[in-house]
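note to self — DONT lose this again. spent like an hour looking for the file last time. sequence + predicted structure for the chain T wanted, 101 res
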Amino acid sequence: MKQIKICESDIIGTSFHGYTIITSYNKLKKVLGPPTYENEDKDEKTQFEWAVETIDGVKGYIYDWKEYRKIKKKEDIIWHIGGKDSESCQKIKDTLNAELK
């Protein structure tokens, strides 16, 4: 059973707390499905973003940050994790890492 999925409700009050994950767009899409937000304009701070929720209700975001170039879908890049607090971000990171294996 999947431990993380796209969040269907609004997520308010999230921030970056220093948590990141290194993987590719294709791998994230395989686990999470299509991004919640997509804008492939290389001048944008964020091109891809997933609003996510773990099975136990922890909500947050997975997003690229300031790549300022066309992201190749197969390349591993650093993805930022945004959440309510540090513990939420750690939970999302751990859950996503488990799903990506």
